[in-house]
Design a protein that fits this description.
The complex is a heterodimer of chains A (337) and B (279). Chain A has 337 residues and is an alpha/beta fold. Chain A has helices at 12-21, 59-62, 98-112, 118-125, 175-183, 209-215, 224-229, 237-241, 286-305, 315-319, 326-334; strands spanning 3-8, 25-32, 35-41, 66-75, 78-82, 91-96, 127-132, 158-164, 167-172, 248-255, 258-265. In chain B, helix 6 links the parallel strand 11 (207-212) and strand 12 (235-238). In chain B, the strands form three sheets. Chain B has a seven-stranded mixed β-sheet with strand order 10-9-8-7-11-12-15, sandwiched between helices. Chain B folds into two domains: 10-101, Translation factors (Elongation Factor Tu (Ef-tu), domain 3, Beta Barrel), CATH 2.40.30; 107-238, Rossmann fold (3-Layer(aba) Sandwich). Chain B is of the alpha/beta class. Classes of the chains: A alpha/beta (337), B alpha/beta (279). Chain A binds chain B through residues 69-70, 72, 74, 77-79, 81, 84, 110-111, 114-119, 220, 246-252, 254, 259, 261, 263, 266, 268, 273-278, 282-283, 288, 292, 295-296, 299-300, 303-304, and chain B through 5-9, 11, 51, 53-57, 79-80, 83, 92-96, 240-242, 244-245, 247-257, 262, 276-279.
Chain lengths: 337, 279
């Protein structure tokens, strides 16, 4: 059971100071010309006052767009591996929406199961997530269809739900959450025994995800994928804004005789993703690549890793330049007989 | 010894550099750090990520046998950025290797059985590993038959080893080249692998078949193996897809729900027949 307390919004400034003196940098949503982006802040005064969803998720704190995997130096016939400069910095991410917090389970499944990815492990170990429940949603939101909810605690170390103008319910969920509360116990008061649900948005359930997972293998050869992806331009935006997309490319970059091996975000929407050197491509047309995106998230990952690779944040639909809408497409897939 | 990061390669020194064909090379690689070489082990069928520092990584099987310790060998064709750069390396140069990755050919399960290898062109390397492994444990197996073809005599890889196998009394080796690919001195067969296999008609009794080759060869050879009495679960192959990480994380080599890197690369045709055509 989570420890439930209340904290005043006006106390957040004091809490942020304590977190900063504890050596953690704080990432929080900031309004940049209408785009809500995670940036480093020192005080809650910089936080965007009102937003439904951050424009981008905070995924790149745990899985940067481009990050160093190793560092090397070459000298004539010799190669020396050097100490990597990619070291995690203790970070607290404030204002993560419950859908995005939920995506950490997907990242953990991919990066920690089977082979443990130590680069990711170090980042997740030093990151604290303070979620903030959603009081509002839009037509793109569908967290409740994929197992989440606007007040879902999964993935957060502490979840705040705004009860009125100055009061947050603070659910202290993990040891990392407890450690934050312990920095300023005087700011966390009793009185948390309240019903948060009436303060959370009402996100209707739009489809049955178990039914979808069950039916997907059967529609693999259906022309529905072709119809849906005819307009897809393969830009990869859906992957880049997705908090649960984890695929990457590995590239070397050099400067003189020094170099780094980088891991960079990649997308199953790109033709090059699967292109063999011979020119053969197992997913040579866009419909096969679109099918891979849906199959991976809703069939393969549930089957192999016991997670749904989608958290219903709606970003892919909000940002798609050709207005592909994942909710509409899933609904249509479910109508294939 | 310090725990190695997941993506940190072993540093390997090129100990031998063999031109197999005009565009195919074999490297013998020795561990720069002796203790790493001593603790390294792998099994037939596994692969790795080979890298030229500054150019990137490329995926090939380990072409040498696990019975030969202290080194590994890889055979590759000059094709892309990494393999072209690799091909320009010389004996003594250092390259990277991560691995071993992937599943294995279940040789332990095949004790007492006969082995039939059917392969073409540059698909011999993954089977060469198994062939030497079986030859080094020769008493564990009954008949060993190798049917190997290439477009021309020039395109046959491991020419010296083919000669050696041909001389051994305990291997039946049939080599062939495509019609028109023969030379005046050529003593092997002339014809495509499926035709030559059908003519040789090896027994399927208590035999496991290993089939690796270009897609067209596989397509035409499978019906012949079936006709010879091999059921699909007795025919093994390796799948290849573009890979980056080699450990099921980078997300691109999947065939349906299986990653070739993690769940393969070794599959039986009984398994392959259940997979969507994404390879």
């Amino acid at each position: 059971m989570a420890d439930k307390k209340i904290i005043r919004k006006s106390s957040l400034g004091e809490l942020f100071k304590k977190i900063r003196s504890d050596g953690k940098r704080i990432l929080a949503p900031v309004d940049r010309g209408g785009k809500i982006l995670f940036e480093y802040v020192d005080s809650p005064g910089s936080i965007a006052p009102d937003y439904i969803q951050t424009t981008l998720s905070a995924k790149d704190t745990l899985l940067p767009r481009c990050e160093e995997m190793l560092r090397f130096r070459t000298e004539q016939k010799s190669v020396y591996l050097e100490e990597s400069l990619n070291r995690p910095e203790p970070t607290l991410i404030f204002g993560v929406r419950p859908c995005d917090a939920r995506s950490i389970a997907v990242l953990n499944a991919v990066y920690l199961i089977n082979y443990t990815d130590d680069i990711y492990r170090q980042k997740i170990d030093t990151t604290t997530i303070v979620g903030v429940s959603c009081a509002k949603c839009d037509e793109y939101c569908f967290c409740t269809s994929v197992g989440g909810s606007p007040g879902d605690t999964a993935g957060s170390d502490m979840l705040l739900t705004q009860m009125d103008n100055d009061i947050y319910l603070a659910e202290i969920l993990t040891d990392k959450g407890k450690a934050i509360a312990a920095l300023a116990p005087e700011l966390f008061a009793e009185g948390g025994d309240v019903d948060k649900n009436k303060h959370c948005a009402d996100v209707p359930v739009r489809f049955d995800v178990k039914d979808l997972s069950k039916r997907l293998p059967g529609v693999f050869e259906d022309p529905v994928w072709i119809a849906q992806s005819l307009r897809c331009i393969g830009c990869g935006t859906c992957s880049y804004v997705c908090p649960a997309c984890t695929c990457f490319d590995i590239q070397d970059e050099t400067d003189g005789n020094r170099g780094v091996r980088l891991r960079c975000w990649d997308s199953c929407g790109f033709a090059q993703f699967t292109l063999h050197t011979s020119g053969h491509n197992p997913r040579e047309v866009q419909s096969q690549r679109w099918r891979q995106r849906i199959m991976h998230k809703f069939s393969y990952q549930p089957d192999q890793l016991d997670v749904i690779g989608c958290v219903g944040c709606g970003r892919c639909s909000r940002t798609c330049p050709v207005d592909m809408n994942i909710l509409q497409h899933i609904t249509d897939i479910l109508e294939v007989h | 010894m310090e725990e190695k990061s997941l993506y940190q390669p072993y540093l390997m020194r090129i100990a031998a550099n063999i031109d197999e064909t005009p565009d195919v090379k074999t490297f013998r690689l020795e561990f720069v750090k002796e203790d790493e070489g001593k603790s390294f082990s792998f099994k037939a069928g596994q692969f790795g990520e080979y890298s030229v520092f500054g150019e990137g990584e490329s995926t090939f099987c380990i072409a040498s046998s696990p019975t030969r310790s202290g080194y590994i060998e890889c055979t590759f064709r000059k094709m892309g950025r990494v393999t072209k750069s690799l091909a320009s390396r010389e004996v003594g140069d250092i390259i990277g290797f991560r691995g071993p990755y992937g599943n294995i050919f279940p040789l332990d399960d095949w004790k007492g059985k006969s082995l039939l290898f059917v392969t073409g062109g540059i698909a011999l390397p993954p089977l060469r590993c198994v062939i030497w492994n079986a030859l080094d444990l020769r008493n564990n197996f009954k008949d060993i038959t190798v049917v190997y073809g290439a477009r021309t005599v020039r395109d046959l890889v491991y020419k010296h080893e083919l000669e050696e196998w041909g001389k051994r009394g305990d291997v039946k080796l049939i080599t062939t080249v495509d019609p028109g690919g023969e030379t005046v001195e050529w003593k092997g067969e002339v014809g495509f692998v499926p035709t030559v296999l059908e003519k040789a008609s090896p027994s399927s009794a208590d035999t496991v078949a290993l089939l690796c080759g270009p897609p067209i060869m596989i397509k035409l050879t499978l019906p012949i193996l079936t006709k010879l009495g091999f059921s699909q679960d007795k025919i093994f192959t390796t799948l290849e897809n573009r890979m980056k990480c080699g450990i099921g994380k980078c997300g691109r080599c999947n065939v349906g729900k299986y990653f070739v890197c993690k769940d393969g690369p070794v599959f039986t045709f009984a398994q392959v027949s259940q997979l969507p055509p994404e390879y």
